[in-house]
Amino acid sequence: MMGNSGVFPAGRHAALCVILATLSAVAMACNSNYENAIKELCLDKFKQDMEALDQGHWCSWEDTVESYGELTNCTYLVALKMNCFWPNRLVDEFFIGVHQHYFHNCSPTGRLPHDPPNRILGPFIIVPVVVTLLMTALVVWRSKRSEGIV
């Protein structure tokens, strides 16, 4: 509780200072040390895995999912070991860098956009054209047979 003067009592003030100092030390340790650790421990393995793949397969999720999952787990385990929060700003920046280097030419779905094969595209073109022609023929035919219409 606060005293009459509106400040924390001496014991609580000291405890608050210790907590803030501890959090500051953890945050500082998570900055450069954590960043260096994930680059050395996690990124080097991922680089080896990606270099083992043909560059044409980098956008294939099936080919990269295992390595990418290991990279993600590694950053988490390093954060856990160093008492850092995960995810954090450094992890976000780290993965942005990974994506800019390895996946910058990939579409969001992992495949480059292209037209579907003709066997799939054909019905989507032919059916509306045929229906339009049939409806036009029906309207013309009905307009010529006006004798039974009131």
UniProtKB/TrEMBL annotation:
Keywords linked to the UniProt accession = Cell membrane, Disulfide bond, Membrane, Receptor, Signal, Transmembrane, Transmembrane helix, Transport
Q: Does the keyword field hold NADP? A: no
Gene Ontology molecular functions? coreceptor activity
One Gene Ontology term of the biological-process aspect is:
receptor internalization
Subunit-structure text: Heterodimer of CALCRL and RAMP1; the interaction induces allosteric modulation of CALCRL function and CGRP1/CALCA and CGRP2/CALCB ligand specificity. Heterodimer of CALCR and RAMP1; interaction forms the AMYR1 receptor complex for amylin/IAPP and CGRP1/CALCA ligands.
Extract the PANTHER family matched here. Answer: RECEPTOR ACTIVITY MODIFYING PROTEIN RAMP, RECEPTOR ACTIVITY-MODIFYING PROTEIN 1
What is the name attached to this protein's record? Receptor activity-modifying protein 1
- Species the sequence originates in: Ameiurus melas (Black bullhead)
